[in-house]
């Protein structure tokens, strides 16, 4: 379906019933909270079971327990859970309200009025100012910059902090800031329906009897921030939930741990076991009633035939279901939640996960997933800001075969540069970047000595780029960069004395060692993913024409003149050394051009630009022609600085058999470099598969070739001892991971991933990916990140964890079993959507391997003990049923034992801590100073824990033999009293049944019923002059007791006893 939007006409747009700009990330409201939350809670089998039990207890014929013994703990559990859920949802409402109540200037009735974001409608025209968040998906109409340009930061969408350029149509950019003309604007936009594709938009603007095509470059998306642009006007195309940001945001899901699912399964099995016990006891009751029960009817005033044995067994069955309900204890869930809460506090209080630089502690934002941390099999990680600091630093370089960036020691050996070394004192301190440091003084000496190769190298860095410069209010030079790599190189040249000052469409001005030099810009050969290089052609003040080029070494080395072979070999070794250190490298080269040759070439370039057919191919051919016979100058090495401890964390997690997948919106080369820097990718790997197909057929073929290649190599290495899955089935449940010997990696870009996630291809993708040690997905959208996580979750039955720091990671974090947010430089969106948060990636190691293992181990131990305790308690009633005529009576006075338990447990804890706090209180010493002389070691020996342990062990060791001895003596060597008791029991059994006096036992008991890197550079934009500004913008209750009255007494001894027995006397009685 398509969308039709008319500017400045709310009545016209309302008939299409488009969504307003209000967003909802919360799950409940006042009306829906109770029914939805109760529905979610009663999905727990135990809660549903106790609800049924409560209903049974309301029937007096079968219940021997009062109904509130079940309803009190049930209501307590449900209330505690509901309060926690309500608290979490309250914060979501609070966050939503904060966003919805942001102010924006909207053009209404020919006036700019402040409106809340939630009141913005489709078709409205909005004014944005510098550093302001974009309220909705807008069609850019005009801006303060020339030709309707504006700059936006898309960190919340794709994780990249570098600026993107958007430009308005020429017909709308003429509207400027004229409110009257903007109010009369009545253009109609026909475009695609709301979708989640961040890099694609198709539409047509109809205005003034003409149509204009629209693409993604004309659209500013919600979540972006306007940068370096004083103001701009935009027309709302998508609002609220229809915006691409919200389309990429996953829904909040109810997360459960594997322990929860196991407990639900156990509860079902135990309930089945309870039914079996009830059936056995019911059958026993029916048999007992039919054979023995008739003798009791005289005393119970039953009418003959009023109650059949079968009906009695039926009622007994339900009575025992109630009595034996402790085998499925509701207190289990309360105890589990208490343990989880304690584990959450352990995480919050962990000083080893506290980041002192930002005073940020680790935070367990949920209390229900702790034990799941110990079962993680797959980690899905963002790159920018998660693995890296998103800070590019110029570290080393190779110029004319010599490496700079190393500090030789006294023995002329390379040593590692540390902060203890003295940094270089730069030439122009006033204009140097204060954060930039370089420790190799040899480079500065070469500059001062006038080395022409070094000067030319730095000149290339200062001229060959797309950086824009401006001065802030303090007069400091500020660079706006398209890529952080370019910013690092230009900043390095600036600190070494070659300062990029300004540019126009025809010139570039730099300051070379204090002298301003203006170069005429003759041509700009832009970067793209195919060329992997960029070049500029300039004329220097002496009239010489120079071509300066920088790019990937694999591409640029093919363009060198044959005379560079020696330098090429040396530089290649240096590049290998740089790459081994995880640095990002570029080769630098230049060429002198003849004036006549350049004029002829430039004429052909103009003709190619004017061509209507094969324009791109002709231009690419001309670029190839002039970018040849280059002279190599050297290479640069830039560090995309990793966060501290990333390499060690990745290594430890890999040793724990946890697979790490990197899902990033960055370009492929960058992601691969970071993979090598983190040791996720290594040169020792058997193979690295790169999937870059442009359609489903190509992607399927590449995936199958990679799998065949992997399987073939695997068979060769293992000599045929590898289990290979030969069946090709589309059902993903049938995928069996092959036994792989060797390390493999898979790299796939977002465009290919979109085809690979289709139903008939994803089986191949998942099977290949799971056989690889490392998987890197580049240029993926936020929704694709979530789809990859869902794929592994659904078909591998593995526990997954997603970690990220930006808004573009929210979908992935919500989709995984556990979401971890890093409080980095891209806001708190990821933290707010996460289950756990901390400041550094390295803390993930301790979270999983320490807290996760502890939580899982303790929970398993607790569950084993808890079920043992409850089975032991419940089976007592089962066995007692055989001695009470299966009458559903209670064997234990639970109110009494509950009281004793509470007294001993809480009393012992209270006494222990009261003594502990008293002995260690800082106030008690001041109150009673004479009581604490602490003379000698004997006085404070009892404060040592080992002393109390010795006392405890000694007591147990002393008491236990006596207890065992008494037990064995009664059985092996009984006394006269013991023999009498045995004789009495034997006499009772020998008496005929008619002589036994029937007795009834009555008891009453109450117990508890327990992002995207650019594909094309900005060269054409720069040379057109559209981005050049006329002027710089401004800166911007107690338990009730009942007692049994059934104390047993043995009657006086019979006269017919042996002589041994008669010696005790006729008047003596023995109490048992």
UniProtKB/TrEMBL annotation:
GO CC aspect terms: phospholipid-translocating ATPase complex; plasma membrane; trans-Golgi network
Q: Which InterPro entries match?
A: ATPase_P-typ_cyto_dom_N, ATPase_P-typ_P_site, ATPase_P-typ_TM_dom_sf, ATPase_P-typ_transduc_dom_A_sf, HAD-like_sf, HAD_sf, P-type_ATPase_IV, P-type_ATPase_N
Instruction: Name the top EC class.
Output: translocase
For the region Disordered, give the residue spans: 985-1010, 1023-1043
* EC number of this enzyme: 7.6.2.1
Q: Which residues bind Mg(2+)?
A: 382, 384, 805, 809
Q: What is this protein called?
A: Phospholipid-transporting ATPase
Q: Which organism is it from?
A: Macaca fascicularis
Query: Which part of the chain is the P-type ATPase N-terminal domain?
Result: 5-71
Looking at the keywords, is Membrane present?
yes
Q: Which cofactor does it need?
A: Mg(2+)
Record-annotated membrane-spanning stretches: 266-288, 308-334, 871-892, 904-925, 946-968
Q: Where in the cell is it found?
A: Endomembrane system; Membrane
Q: Which PROSITE patterns match?
A: ATPASE_E1_E2
Sites where the protein binds ATP: 382-384, 486, 527, 550, 584, 664-666, 779, 785, 808-809
The entry's family comment says: Belongs to the cation transport ATPase (P-type) (TC 3.A.3) family. Type IV subfamily.
Compositional bias per record (Basic residues), positions renumbered to this chain: 985-1005
| Lineage of producing organism | Eukaryota, Metazoa, Chordata, Craniata, Vertebrata
The record's active-site residues are 382
Regarding the membrane, this protein is recorded as: Multi-pass membrane protein
Q: Its GO biological process terms? A: Golgi organization; phospholipid translocation
- GO MF annotations, alphabetized: ATP binding; ATP hydrolysis activity; ATPase-coupled intramembrane lipid transporter activity; magnesium ion binding
* Domain P-type ATPase C-terminal, residue spans: 831-890
Keyword vocabulary terms for this entry: ATP-binding, Lipid transport, Magnesium, Membrane, Metal-binding, Nucleotide-binding, Translocase, Transmembrane, Transmembrane helix, Transport
Principal subcellular localisation of the protein: membrane
